[in-house]
Design brief:
Layout lengths: L12 E4 L8 E8 L4 E4 L4 E6 L9 E6 L2 E2 L3 E3 L10 E6 L2 E6 L8
Antiparallel strand pairs: 1-2, 1-7, 2-3, 3-6, 4-5, 8-9
């Protein structure tokens, strides 16, 4: 069980900081809070074997992105374009995520 809050949200652009895809960027498709994992578009691909069905009569092997630990990704700031850590600040409109590099609001 993951007790820490995940620092990325669906739709964020992230860069991979460890593993085979190190240095590559992609968009977050899905976040699993309970397991502490994220699915990034086009990265950490795995092959899935599909049996023939009505939609796909041929069947075959397709590649889909697999979940990875959220600690292996770092958010890319939309304003400065650098991979960065984030800070959480309380403002009048609630809690917001702030870039540690340029101090601008991320969401």
């Amino acid at each position: 069980m993951n007790m820490n809050k995940i620092h990325v949200k669906k739709g964020d652009t992230v860069t991979i900081i460890s593993g085979d895809d190190k240095g590559k960027k992609g968009k977050v498709l899905r976040v699993d809070d309970k397991k502490g994992r994220v699915v990034v578009e086009g990265l950490n691909m795995m092959k899935k074997h599909l049996r023939p069905n009505r939609d796909n009569p041929q069947g075959g092997i397709v590649q889909i992105p697999a979940p990875m630990k959220s600690s292996k990704v770092m958010i890319v700031c939309p304003s400065c374009g650098k991979p960065t850590r984030i800070a959480r600040e309380k403002r009048n409109d609630g809690k917001v995520r702030v870039c540690k590099q340029c101090n601008k609001v991320i969401d």
